[in-house]
Design brief:
single chain; alpha/beta; Rossmann fold; seven-stranded parallel beta sheet; 11 helices; about 40% helix; about 15% strand
Length: about 325
Amino acid sequence: MRVLVTGGAGFLGSSLVEHLLEFDDEIVVIDNFWRGKLGHIEHILNRITLLESDACQASSYDSIPDPSSIDVVYHLAAINGTKWFHEEARMVMDVNLNSTLRAIEFAEKNKCRFVFTSSPEAYGNSEVMPLGDLEPSLFTHPSHHQRHAYGASKYLGELAVQHAVRQGLDGRIVRPFNGYGPRLSQDDYGQVVTMMMRSALNSNIVHIHGNGNQTRSLTWVDDIVQGIALSGRLDSCLKSGESLSGRSFNLGSTEEISMLDLGKRICQLVNEKTNTSVKVEMTEGYPGDSLRRLPHLVDAENSLGWSATTSLEVGLRQTLDSML
């Protein structure tokens, strides 16, 4: 297959590109390296076509060689990271929405299959668990906080995909649940696992937001990219043979953990590896933080034959090893 991956130098994107190369796919990557890193894909540059450009701009897609031969578009370009949602809400919305609309337009024009990487944040503050079937999204009043800049942009992205499906696009949606792994950003604008680990290594402290009772279903990066790839490679549902167009698939682990327990486990792992004394410290959290995230997985299991297989213990150890 010939595929386009937007955001292909990012955390998930670069791992997806590596995975697709195992199938001898011909891959075009669009990334402007604002969040993605050349180092993530430097070792495979001789096997891909890299376009250093902005996925929000239509002109970026005009540079793709032989665009009509692209079979699948995997759209991952986006801004993630809780701190960005509050500090740069309009930028988050701008990038996430416009990159999605431009990528959809390219897929429509060139009759490609389209896979949109959404997020469980598209459900806002929904308390229905497991999350991600057909329940409605729930967003707080916009004057309360700006966290939903990200979740609402993903919700609108899903809306755009479903509209395009009605117009004839073969579009599929995936929602990774808290992916983590060695390439996950470790700075203050990153995500929880590597932020905790970096803080533990640098200052011997793991910061826990609020009371730490909020839970997440942390999912190993390789499990997620396998699900993303399957959603684009399969022609139809494995179980029923029905079309996958317009379908949404949650990609997550059923191994739920509180942030307090995660922090304590990371303290133990770092203590074991470095022979230091790392402790938990409670801090004020961000407004609007979701209390729970547990994925509904029936569709992914039945349609894609997918489930997460990497335990949290194994994944945390591998992530920490990559940071030492």
